[in-house]
C-alpha cells in the first residue's frame, strides 16, 4: 500500500511536469500565431497559416502537433480577427497508479494571444501622414505602391509631411537626414506634440530612402524584402507617424504606420506599401479596428 501511494506521488509529479510543458508549448504556439494577426475573417489561407504555426511551435516545444486540440480565432473587429486561443491536450499514462487501478489523466492547457495597436514607437522616421488622409486611403484600398510625395503646404496634395522629432530648434536638415536613414533613437508616444519641419525635405528623403532600400540584406535571390516577406528590422521597413494638426506649425501623434520601401517609380520618386509589423516590446493602446490601429501592433499573451 505504501509503495502504491509513493508511486502515485511520482505519477502526479510527472503529470504536473507534463502540465508545465504543455503550458510552455501553448504559450510559444500562441505567440507564433500572434505574429500572424490580424487575420481577415474568411481568409482561409491566412487562418491555415496560423494553424500550421501553432502545430509547428507546439512540436518545437516538445508537444506533438496531434495534441493541438483547438485553435480558435477570436476578437473580431472591422472584419478581422485580433485574437487566437490555443488548447493543447496530452494523455499521461501512470506507471504506479495502475497498481491501484488509476490508469492516467488528461492534461489540458490553453493560451490566448491578442494583438493591440502600439501606443509608442522607437526608430520612427521624421515623416507623418495626416490621420484623416490615411483613413481615406485605407478605406479606398489605396495604400499599396504609393509614391512618397510631400504635402508641402500651399494646397499641394502630397501624402506625407516632414516633422521635427526632437522639437529642438536647429539641427534642421542634418537631424532630418540622420533620422530618415537610421530612425529616431527616442521613444515617441501617442499624444506627443511635434513641430512641423519647415523647408523642402523632398530631396533628402529620396536620397535617404534610396540608401535604406539598397541596404536590405535579406531574401537574397528573391529581390530582398518586400510585402510578401520581410524582416521587421530591415532598413526597408520604415515607421511613420500618423498625426492630427493642432495648429499650422504643430501636430499631435495619433499612431504609427509602417511602410516597406519598394524602389523607385523611374522618375526618382520612392514607392512604398503599407504593411503591418508586430513586436512584443512596447506599450499598447488604441482600439482594435479603430482609432490608433494603423499597422504597428504589440503581441500580448492575455491568458
Ligand atoms: Zn530586408
Summarize the structure.
The chain has 303 residues and is of the alpha+beta class. It contains 5 helices and 15 strands.
Provide the structure class.
Answer: alpha+beta
Give me the number of helical elements: 5
How many separate structural domains? 2
Give the end-to-end Cα distance, rounded to a whole number of Å: 40 Å
Bound compounds, each kind once, are: zinc ion
The residue-averaged pLDDT reads 91
- Name the overall outline: elongated
How many E-type strands? 15
Outline the biggest β-sheet: 7 strands, mixed
**SSE pattern:** HEHEEEEEHEEHEEHEEEEE
Task: Describe the overall structure.
By secondary structure, the protein is an alpha+beta fold. It folds into 2 domains: 2-117; 120-283, no CATH class. The chain is built from 5 helices and 15 strands. The chain has helices spanning 2-34, 44-60, 131-139, 172-182, 202-214; strands spanning 39-40, 68-77, 80-93, 104-117, 120-121, 124-130, 146-147, 161-162, 188-189, 193-195, 237-247, 250-264, 270-274, 277-279, 296-301. The strands form 3 sheets. Strands 6, 7, 8, 10, 11, 12 and 13 form a 7-stranded mixed β-sheet that branches. Strands 1, 2, 3, 4, 14 and 15 form a 6-stranded mixed β-sheet that branches. Strands 5-9 form a two-stranded antiparallel sheet. Helix 1 packs across helix 2. The longest helix is centred in the first third of the chain and has 33 residues, at 2-34. It is elongated and about 85 Å long. The protein starts with a helix and ends with a strand. Residues 152-156 have low confidence and may be disordered. Residues 216, 218, 224-225, 230-231, 234, 236 line the site of zinc ion. Zinc ion is lined by residues 216, 218, 224-225, 230-231, 234, 236.
Amino acid at each position: 500500500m505504501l509503495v502504491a501511494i509513493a508511486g502515485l506521488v511520482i505519477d502526479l509529479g510527472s503529470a504536473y511536469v507534463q502540465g508545465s510543458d504543455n503550458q510552455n508549448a501553448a504559450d510559444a504556439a500562441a505567440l507564433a500565431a500572434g505574429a500572424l494577426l490580424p487575420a481577415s475573417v474568411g481568409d482561409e489561407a491566412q487562418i491555415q497559416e496560423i494553424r500550421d504555426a501553432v502545430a509547428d511551435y507546439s512540436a518545437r516545444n516538445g508537444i506533438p502537433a496531434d495534441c493541438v486540440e483547438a485553435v480558435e480565432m477570436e476578437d473580431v473587429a472591422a472584419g478581422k480577427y485580433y485574437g487566437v486561443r490555443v488548447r493543447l491536450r496530452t494523455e499521461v499514462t501512470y506507471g504506479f497508479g495502475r497498481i491501484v487501478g488509476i490508469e492516467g489523466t488528461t492534461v489540458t492547457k490553453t493560451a490566448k494571444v491578442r494583438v493591440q495597436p502600439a501606443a509608442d514607437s522607437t526608430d520612427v522616421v521624421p515623416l507623418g501622414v495626416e490621420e484623416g488622409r490615411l483613413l481615406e486611403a485605407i478605406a479606398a484600398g489605396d495604400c499599396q505602391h504609393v509614391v512618397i510625395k510631400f504635402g508641402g503646404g500651399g494646397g499641394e496634395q502630397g501624402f506625407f509631411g516632414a516633422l521635427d522629432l526632437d522639437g529642438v530648434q536647429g539641427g534642421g536638415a542634418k537631424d532630418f537626414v540622420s533620422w530618415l536613414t537610421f530612425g529616431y533613437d527616442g521613444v515617441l508616444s501617442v499624444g506627443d506634440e511635434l513641430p512641423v519641419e519647415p523647408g523642402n525635405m523632398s530631396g533628402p528623403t529620396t536620397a535617404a530612402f534610396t540608401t535604406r532600400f539598397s541596404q536590405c540584406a535579406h531574401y537574397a535571390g528573391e529581390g530582398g524584402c518586400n510585402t510578401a516577406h520581410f524582416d521587421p528590422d530591415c532598413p526597408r521597413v520604415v515607421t511613420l507617424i500618423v498625426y492630427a494638426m493642432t495648429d499650422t506649425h504643430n501636430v499631435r501623434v495619433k499612431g504609427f504606420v509602417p511602410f516597406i520601401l519598394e524602389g523607385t517609380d523611374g522618375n526618382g520618386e520612392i514607392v512604398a506599401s503599407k504593411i503591418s509589423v508586430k513586436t512584443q516590446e512596447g506599450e499598447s493602446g488604441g482600439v482594435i479596428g479603430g482609432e490608433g490601429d494603423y499597422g504597428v501592433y504589440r503581441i500580448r499573451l492575455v491568458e
